[in-house]
Design goal:
7-stranded mixed sheet, 249 residues, Rossmann fold, alpha/beta
Length: 249
């Protein structure tokens, strides 16, 4: 019987710990496939911080480094500067990256550090109990805003891709989702482009993935997917936010 599909060698055989309907596993698969297809798997170094992806080192079949909450960009900076020819990536959630790690990611992008960040935006803190994140939408409920987020109390949700795109060191930023096969294919192309531009030495590259969190949203996986398309995509538009070429040094 002909093999029509098999799991990427970029993933281990460890059982994923993520909740049913969570998109982390899909994004892991895309990153693993890209690294394998580009011939980068043996050289790749990933950094996972605290959050739902805290055990990502068990799942990726490449060298992985654990980082403190929010500090993955700082760790990745040190790794990439020590190993400038190797592909380096961080894998971070919105509570981690946009809140406690906001300074880390902004300054890494500002400096044009030559690594790739895969940013999972599910509009809420996942692992720590469903608290409001910088990306939580207006009116969206969380354990720390049980009546829904308000602009008056918490300000408007942060559009991280647009924010980082204002910095010269960021040469590529794209927002994608993985709610169906067409969007999944676009997400994979974006991840590949991010690694290609990194390996060309152009600068900092960033892929934001809109993701569901059925557990903390209090929804079924199918309803969560539809909620993402109906509510997150209008505020966080999909597509290339920035693409340019920096002077290669």
């Amino acid at each position: 019987m002909a093999i029509v599909y098999q799991k990427s060698k970029g993933l281990t055989d460890a059982e994923l710990h993520y909740c049913p309907g969570c998109n982390h596993g899909i994004v892991h698969k895309l990153i693993a496939e890209v690294l394998e297809e580009m011939g980068l798997l043996d050289e790749a170094i990933g950094v996972c911080p605290v959050g739902c992806s805290v055990f990502a080192y068990k799942y990726f079949n490449c060298d992985m480094q654990e980082a403190a909450h929010g500090r993955a960009p700082a760790v990745a900076t040190g790794i990439k500067r020590t190993h400038p020819t190797q592909p380096v990536f961080t894998y971070q959630g919105d509570g981690d990256l946009a809140s406690i790690g906001a300074a880390e990611i902004v300054h890494a992008a500002m400096r044009g550090e030559k690594f790739t960040t895969i940013f999972i935006n599910n509009a809420i803190y996942g692992m720590t109990g469903g608290q409001m994140a910088p990306t939580t939408l207006i009116g969206q409920k969380a354990t720390t805003c049980q009546l829904g987020r308000t602009k008056e109390q918490a300000g408007m949700p942060m559009r991280v891709s647009e924010l980082l795109s204002t910095l010269d060191g960021c040469v590529y930023a794209e927002r994608v989702c993985v709610t169906d096969i067409p969007h999944l294919n676009k997400a994979k192309k974006a991840i590949r482009k991010a690694f290609e531009k990194q390996m060309a030495g152009e600068g900092f590259t960033f892929v934001e993935v809109l993701s569901t969190c059925p557990t903390n949203w209090g929804m079924s996986p199918l309803k969560a997917k539809q909620w993402l398309m109906d509510n997150m995509v209008p505020y966080y538009p999909l597509g290339v936010i920035k693409e340019t070429s920096a002077e290669v040094k």
